[in-house]
Model the fold of this input.
Amino acid sequence: MNENTPSGPIAAASRLPEMPAFEPGSVWLVGAGPGDPGLLSLLAFHALGQADDIVYDALVGDGILALAGAGAVCHAAGKRGGKPSAKQADITEKLIELARAGRKVLRLKGGDPFIFGRGGEEALALAAAEVPFRLVPGITAAVAGLAYAGIPITDRRVNSAVTFITGHEAGGGPPEGLDWRALASGAPVLILYMALKHLAWMAERLISAGLDPDTAVVLISKATTADQHIVETHLAAAAADAEAAKLEAPAIVAIGDVVGLRAALDPSATPEARARAALALSADGDRD
Ligand SMILES: C[S@@+](CC[C@H](N)C(=O)[O-])C[C@H]1O[C@@H](n2cnc3c(N)ncnc32)[C@H](O)[C@@H]1O
Done:
């Protein structure tokens, strides 16, 4: 860009890369991110404007659906506003039916479609039915939620791995089959999705397997939305503190020392408090 390049949002829009055509009779399976419409990808934004039908999950907020084209038909496919949840088979059947009717079908899912989101199952059903599709990733709740809370999900001084865990198995129970000893000793940062219900059970497993009960924990409810609610605690107290704070789903739980970086990076802290914490943290470790 030079000084003669037009600026402003309209000029910037004219410089957008060319977007792929949303072909009639195809399905785009797209991640909408965890809530803030600003976290949509350009492909997701493009798809919203082009789609004839949008089949959306409960975690996709109204701020995102408001970006749909004027003629788009929106179909709720998740538990929202007390309505009963659609069955997975009915959702995939609807996607196939709409595509076969020649519609441009946007399947919009919260976060990333392939992180605990059944996106793989839906894509397989489309592939089996020979329906053309495109897969568009989204920003998953853990990555965005931690960033909005002021926590880098990795820091090379602290963790060389991140582990994503679901707290809710297909049948609704806790994740019984995990190797808790391996997680306690070899996974420096654990991220729990769908974990509020079984948090006490999971924390107890980790502590019994040797993880320090004082390990730092952050609980983030409704991350990246206006109702975001953050509770910092430690492993032994996490479930009780979640309950005391009346934390609501959806929420993610992060366990590990990266949580401590929030002291220096919390967007809601004063610049002075952040600077004090940043200086203390950099005195603790050499960045090179
Ligand atoms: C069925 S999983 C879907 C995850 C999604 N595919 C993703 O990549 O974020 C639902 C869980 O994601 C997490 N989640 C989704 N959106 C969230 C948000 N805005 N704030 C906190 N957690 C969220 C919660 O753990 C919730 O129970």
About this structure: The pocket of S-adenosylmethionine is lined by residues 34-35, 59, 109-112, 115-117, 140-141, 145, 193-194, 220, 222-225, 249-252 (CB under 6 Å). The mean pLDDT is 93. Strands lie at 27-31, 53-56, 73-76, 105-109, 133-136, 163-166, 190-193, 216-221, 229-234, 251-255.
